[in-house]
Every structure is written in C-alpha cells, then in structure tokens.
Amino acid sequence: SVLKDLPKNFDYNVTGTPVVDYGIQKSVKQLIFIFPPALFFLMWLIYFLRLGDVRSAMLPPLFAALAAGFTYGIAAIIGVKLDILTSTAGLFVIVVSSSYGLHVIDRYLLFRSKQGHSGALMHAIKDEAPSLFLSALTTAVGFLTFLFSSMKAMKELGLLVSLGVGFSFAFSLVVIPAIISLIDLKTHHKRMTIKFKLGSKTGIGISIAMLFLLVISPFFIKNLEVNSDQFGFFKKSSDLVRSAEVSKKYFGWVVPFYIELQKDGNFTAKDAAIIENILDDLHSIKNVRGTSSIMDIVDNFNIPLPITMIFSRTERGQEFLNEFVEGKNLRIMVKTPITDAVGAITLKTSIEDVMNKYPQYTYTVNSPLLNFAALNMNTSKNQIMTILMASGAIFILLLIVFRNLRYTLIAIVPIVGTTIMNFAYMAIFGLNLDVGTSIVSGVLMGLIIDYSIHLMLRYRTIKREKDETTAIQKAMDDIGPVIVASGLSLAAGFSALFFTSMKIYSDLALLLVFGVATGVVMTLFTVPMLLRLNEMIKARLSAKKSSKQRSKKQAVAKPVNAEKRI
C-alpha cells in the first residue's frame, strides 16, 4: 500500500525471504482451488473418449476429487499445514486414483454389451476387485515409504496421498457400483479403441529403443546435480525472480548471511581493531559483496565501540542499532548473490574458516538459505531410501500375490525402467535433484505399477480360462485401451501444472508427463514381450524334460526286450 503511493514514473522491486514465502503461499492456494476443476475437465474428456458416455466418464474423476477433499479434511483435523509439497497431495490423489473407477466402469460396459445389468455389474466387480486392491495397496505402500524420509513435509505428503488412495479405492468398489446399480449406464458413442499386436515390428522397435535408452541413461545420470534454490522455485518471467535479479545487479546481493559474534565480557576498543580484520577477511571470500556491522557506525561517526555498545542498551539505541547489536552480542551481515543450497554450504564453510582464526570469539552463522541447504543435504539420501523401500515393498507384495518369481520380476520391469529414465530426463532437461523433483520417482512407481498389475492379472486370468497361446494378446486387447486412456488423462492432468507461476510445479509436470509416457510404453510393449519370452523358455524347458523322460523310458525298455529275446 505504501509503494502504490509512489509517482507513476517510479519503478520498484520487492525481494527477500518473506516475499518468497508469500509467492509460495499464493501458488499453493492456486494449486488447491484453481487447478482441480481444470484437471477434472481434462480427465472427464479423455474418459469420455474411452467410455463413450457422459455420465460414465464423470464418475471416476468426481469420486477421486471427493477422495482428495476427504484427504484435505484429514490434514486439517490432524494439523498438517499445506506447504509447497503437501499442497500437491490432492492433485496426486485425483490423478493417481481416478483410474480405479475407470477400470470398474470400463469392465462393466464391456460385460453390459453381452449380458444383463446386474450380471454385468457383478462380473465387473469380481473381475476388477483383486486388481484394484493390489494396485491401491502397492501405491499406498509406495507413498508410505516417504515416512522414512527425514523431511517432515515429505512424510506428511506420503501419509496424505496414501489416505486419499484408500478413500478412492473404497469409492471405486462401493459407491460407484452402487450408483451403477441404480443407473444402467450404457455406451452411447463410439469408444476409443487401440489395438496392440504382440510381436509387431512397431512393438519390437519400441522395446529395443527403450532398452537402448536404459543402457545409455547412466551417461546422463552421472551429470545430475543435487541442489535447490528458493528463487529457482519460480519461473524466470515471474516478478519475484526479476526483483531478485535487479537486487543482484545493483546491490550485489539478495539473501544475507548473519554472523552472531560473542565474547566473555564486553567488547572494548581493542576488539574494534580485531573486528576490522575479521571484516577484511570476510571481504576476501569469493561471492561476498560486502558486509554491514556496527563498525560502519563506529568508523563513519568516529564513535568508539565501547560507547556505541553502551548507547545500544538505551531505548533510543535499541531502535537504531538492533540490526547490529543484541544484548552483549554483535551481528555482522554478509552480503552475497548466492541463492542456491550448494553455494550456501560453500560460503558457510568459508566464513567458518575465517572465524576459526579468531578463537577469542564464539560465533554462529545463520541464513534463510541454510534451511534449504539442510533439506538439500538429505535429498539424495532420502531419494535412495524411498526408492529402495518402495521397490522392496512392491516386490514382496507382488511375489505374495503371483507366487511366481518370473512374473514378479516381469511386473516390476516398467517401474524400474521408468525410475531410471526419470533421473535421465532430469539430466537431459537440465533439472536438479531437489526438494520438488525428489518426489517424482515415488509418484511414478505408484502410477506405473497399476498398469503392470492390471495387465499381468488379466493375462493370468485368461491363461487359466483359455488357450495359453492367445492369453497375452487377449490381455493386451482388454487392458491396453484402458491403460492408454489412463495414461493420457494423467499426462493431461499433470500438463495443467505447466501454467502455474512456480517453476517447481512445471518441472514436476515435465518429469511426470515423460515418466507416465515411458511407463505406458514399457507396460504395453516390454511386458508382453517378456511374457512371450517367458512362455518360450518354459516351452523349451518342458520339451527338454519330456525328451529326458522318453530317453529314460527307452533305456529301461531295452534291457527288458533283450531279456525276452533270450
């Protein structure tokens, strides 16, 4: 309100940590209240293309959004504050779990074209319940591994998304079927259908291409940098980043460092000369653009340090000197253009090296940047831990369900490949592994395992009921179009984040869109090819076993025949 009263020809820029916090809060509100409606419309449109019915397409995103609302309600009850990470919980719940309702309705519409209303509904629930339960369980477990992170926000995000997935699973198997039992949904328009042929040249080519990308991905991943920047959360075109750049250009710094200087007893005239030496040493540090301290007043007004310290204890003195003096302690402000975590740690180390040369003083180094640096130091550790925990938990659950090591290994191929490629995409697009991008791997694992589970379980069901030679192709025909529709809806939903003012969310969108596309491709092309290879290996082993058994029988029969001739 003060700046608005300036003349029109006056230009101004506002920067600093409070301004960053305000920008984050504004973007968080947009993410909660503005983007869900846009996300709902995009998902409804894609589901309509697949299901061919307006009402049918509305149910999955509607109840996923309701699950997200329940999740935010739980967050309010247990006192979780919405920040830059936890604010994405509702978005992830909608995008991750809306496919549950899609699978139920898609299966119902398929059976409804061949049988009655009630029979089709019961058949759809019976068919989809095991797949949905396993998908929801593995997804929730994947997000719950965030609880092992040292970051509070990541723990809360994992808990909230897991709760939301649970709500959405319940709605998909209870509420949506209840609505279908009252309203006989039918397809009124042509359904989007995509055929994938097993062993086609396209499929083989795509599988080889994915394998090649996985092989060369380490050459990109080795260049990935672990770093974060609070101004890097915003797009370069934003007012906040422009203001920071203006501050750097004309003043040489944006966010300061503070050195709290302490000693036994009072600061004397002798200390003044030593503090001047400290300031000279600080000025010699790389990326230090200057300092501000009580010595500026001492030198400019020629007032001895002890007298200035006595004045600082008066009411008038506290008003003027509270920036540099607190009680008996002195505060030195170090000006620097650095805003990233790695640079902040380097600068802190350099400052400590200088201060350690003056053992007569005790000191502490503080800066808002060091809070981001502390998060950054744990990012890689948290990333490795969550990936290993999620992969291990998903592997054990799939092994229990499939009771077959080969099927389990085939099922996790898409999430392993997608996770590896996610880090390669970061390096290719020049993104850092930071607080925001570190959650992408966990999210992708929860998304992609859903596709793999549905395809694998459908394959096993058909294999038990029909000819084994056509089981893979039939499973691809049944599940492929649903996976494509779900993948398109996810990509469209995450693409909405490109229009936010925060770069951290647009970076998330970029990685998630490419990650989902990779997961869909690997599920629809690589998994069937591996299943076919598994069948061929089993057939060869079975043929060898049969050949050995025949040889043994012939070997036993020869002596008997010889004895008869004798």
TrEMBL record:
The keyword Protein transport does not apply. Coiled coil: none annotated. The chain crosses the membrane at residues 31-49, 61-82, 88-110, 131-151, 157-183, 204-221, 384-402, 409-429, 435-457, 478-502, 508-531. GO terms for cellular component: plasma membrane. It comes from the Bacteria. Residues 544-555 have a biased composition (Basic residues). Its main location: membrane. Keywords: Cell membrane, Membrane, Transmembrane, Transmembrane helix. Residues 62-182 form the SSD domain. It is found in: Cell membrane. The keyword DNA-binding does not apply. It is a multi-pass membrane protein. Residues 544-566 are annotated as: Disordered. PANTHER family: MEMBRANE PROTEIN MJ1562-RELATED, MEMBRANE PROTEIN YDFJ. This is RND family transporter. It comes from Kosmotoga arenicorallina.
